[in-house]
Every structure is written in structure tokens, then in C-alpha cells.
Amino acid sequence: MSAPALRDMQARFWRALHEGDVERELAAVVVPSPTLDPAARVGIYQGMYVWRLCDVLREDFPKLAAALGDDFQELARRYLAAHPSEYPSVREFGRHLPDFLRDDPLADARPWLADLARLELARVNAFDAPDAVPLRAADLAAVAPEDWSGLCFAVVPSFGFVDASWPVHEVWAAPADRPAAASTRVRVWRQDFSVFHAAMDPVEADALQALVAGASFADVCEAVAAHVAADEAAVEAGSLLARWIEDELIAALRGVFRV
Questions:
Q1: Where would I find the H helices in 28-70?
Q2: 3-state class percentages of the chain: helix first, strand second, coil last, to nearest 5
Q3: Measuring CA to CA, which of 36, 95, 135, 216 is 20 to 30 A from 181?
């Protein structure tokens, strides 16, 4: 009788981890110990697999775990059943959790938790994003006044938006509290090894969205002018740009200008 193929045994082991049943063909190739039969030995890995992936979710979504308390473990198990880990790295394991949580029974009583999970996932993505050299205010000193209107900028790779139906930044700060529904736009970014997020008012949100989409500084000013007096738009846009540079959101100049 020929030995079973490694690929077949790996597939059977995978099914045992996710479905709980140890197939006869798999048990036949597992050597028993003095105290455990083959199925019991595979069972050790089954338990370790589930607990480790639950721990991965707890590490990536600590505020969600704090908000749910004992319910988090059961949520993690339901999520694992619906979205088994598909990658060699556990880095990608939690990427479907915000959408999964939106339709989970827990969302019936606490619908803001899906937005909280989206913010935490955005923070994970920001932490893992590639590095970039941020633009400094001094880098703009060489830009001629007549070139500012056509100037474009690029954000750093760690930058992200979170559009939420709840004040997700407040939920993040106090995950056990019940918030009042309020549409909120949050920006997420990293400076060195620290990840930050900040809620934006409509002026900043629309201006930053225009900048991210590739708009020129003149178009950013137009986005601002939708909220403030026309003669104040350029000054307000300049103040926002200075804030974004200070926060290290801007990575590089993309416009053409004279030096």
C-alpha cells in the first residue's frame, strides 16, 4: 500500500482544524502517545489553532474586545467559522471583521461596534504601511506665488479615511459607553511608530478628500469655499495644509513649480 500524499494529509489536517472531525485517513498517520490516541493529539492542535487566532483578533481589535468583554471570544469563533485564515501570515486574518460584525447579532444592540472595528482595522493598516519621508514646511519656500494654484500633493502611504455613522473616535476612547449616532469622518495616519486618528469637521474632510483625489491647491480652495466665505477660502486652505504638514500627512510634491 502506497504512502498517502502529503497534500492530501495537509488538506485533511486543515479540515480537522476547521470542522472538528478527524478523518480516519488522517488518524492513521498520526502516531499515538502513551496517553493520547491520534484523534486526541490532533485535538490539541484544534484548540491551539482557535485560541491563537482569537488572540490575533484581540491584539488587532483591543478596543472592540474591551467593548464586548466576554462576548468577544464567541464573536471571534463565529468569525473564524465564516472566514478561516487563508494566508501564511495572520496579518490579514481580521480584514473581514468590520463587515462581518455589521451583520452579526451583536450589531442589533450595539450597531456602532462595526464602525469601531473599521477604525481599528484602519489603524492596523496604518501601522503596517510603507514608510515615507514627510513634506516639511521649509520645502515649500521655493514655490513661487504664481505656482501655488497648480500645486498638487500626495499623502503618506499610512493615511486612511474612515467614514462612520457614529462618533467612532469617541467610541474608541470610551468603548464601554453608549454613543449618540452622528456621522463622523476620521483621518488615520502614522508618525514614526505611533498611529494617530482625528475626527474632521466638514471643511477639513472635503478639502482633504479633494487633495487625496489629486486636486490642485486651487481646487482644494474651492472645496473649502463651499463652507466658508470666498475671500477666506485661501487662508483656511493654507491653515489646513499647514496642519497636515505638521501632522506629517503629506509625503511629496506632485505639481510643477519653479525653483
A1: 38-60, 62-68
A2: 55, 10, 35
A3: 95
- Taken as a whole, the chain contains a residue count of 259
**Structural domain boundaries in the chain:** 1-92, 111-259
Nearest to 132 by CA among 254, 249, 257: 249
What's the mean pLDDT in 108-125? 96
- Give how far the C-alpha of residue 118 lies from the chain's centroid of Cα atoms, to the nearest Å: 6
Between CA 21 and CA 31, with CA 25 as vertex, the angle to 5 degrees is 90
Read off the pLDDT of residues 218-242 as tens digits, 9 standing for 90 and up: 999 999 999 999 889 999 999 999 9
Cell of 12: 485533511
Task: Tell the burial category of 105 from Cβ atoms under 10 Å away from its Cβ (0-12, 13-18, 19+).
Answer: exposed
What are 134-152's pLDDT values in tens digits?
999 988 888 888 888 899 9
Fold of 111-259: Outer Surface Protein A; domain 3 (3.90.930)
Q: How far apart are the first and last CA of the chain?
A: 78
Three cell numbers at 78? 463565529
Q: Is residue 7 pLDDT above 90, yes or no?
A: no
pLDDT surpassing 60 at residue 256: no
Rounded CA separation 230/228 (Å): 6
| Predicted model pTM | 0.83
